[in-house]
């Protein structure tokens, strides 16, 4: 008669087709179940004709009471289901943004619309719907968010890169996706790698939307202390030539890494010079930066490096223990608030592998209290201090204290 096989794990389950005998047995079982249910129904509802009228009343009251109890149970189940559904909505967070507000862009409503899971309720989480990801703080900037999402679908995106960054800096991160085409710029003249690392980038291959400067010459005179100029200044000597005891050299730091340094993260990496120097040592560096008054991300990409457009209020989109090196300077001082710095350092610790290096590069300590608080915070992590230098730099007639350190993450048990 044949059989049906179903592979389960490493074994195989076989289901034989039903025979005449098994069909008869199944029929007998079904008949028994139906007969039992009919007898139960008969016993529950039947009252003998010899029973007097007054003896029927208690039974009728019992049935009424049972019906009321069943109705009460059903109401409780319905209430619990509604409560669970509301808890699911609260966990997902999609009702934190009121889409019924006037002037809410249609595209925003469409993007945030809930969608049922294709296979029904998830057995692990109990979630039944998919919800688009959007920053919870967007609710505080609904006017700006609606402006950002007010565009023509399938058309060209508005020239609003500065608006997007304003939303990110207000905590509206991640931003909702859009169904429009970003402005394209001809990238003619890009140099091949590794020649691209130290060749000045053309003004024509960068979008200057939202910036007060419209060329790199303007930026060289007012921003980033010449970090866009490789022909003049100190930028092409950084990390290979020290100007003070706080400036560590790349070769010296790489020699401290146990197990080798292969991949790292540069926080607040400016124009990507640290990543460029590391690329010469066959080390891949991801450079986190925003476009604060300058097209940093495009400039880094034009050098053949990896830019990451992300604020420091956002969790790093990397898995635990993946980086051999994390490099950061005064960009860690997020708003000067110690609790924010603490959260940030814990996230750095999360993505740094055991034996990896945390390179704190010329962190500005505004006062002795700040230096002491930072020192105590770092010591909580139990890192091994491979190098620790506190020095002063004189600028504009005023002395400033900077901390530079190379710390090695230890295995925790």
UniProtKB/TrEMBL annotation:
Transmembrane spans: 24-44
Keywords: Glycoprotein, Membrane, Methyltransferase, Signal-anchor, Transferase, Transmembrane, Transmembrane helix
One GO CC term on file: endomembrane system
Entries under InterPro entries matching the protein: Prob_Methyltransferase (IPR053223), Put_SAM_MeTrfase (IPR004159), SAM-dependent_MTases_sf (IPR029063)
MF-aspect GO terms: methyltransferase activity
PANTHER family per UniProt: OS06G0138600 PROTEIN, S-ADENOSYL-L-METHIONINE-DEPENDENT METHYLTRANSFERASE SUPERFAMILY PROTEIN-RELATED
Protein's recorded name: S-adenosyl-L-methionine-dependent methyltransferase
Organism field: Nepenthes gracilis (Slender pitcher plant)
Taxon lineage: Eukaryota, Viridiplantae, Streptophyta, Embryophyta, Tracheophyta
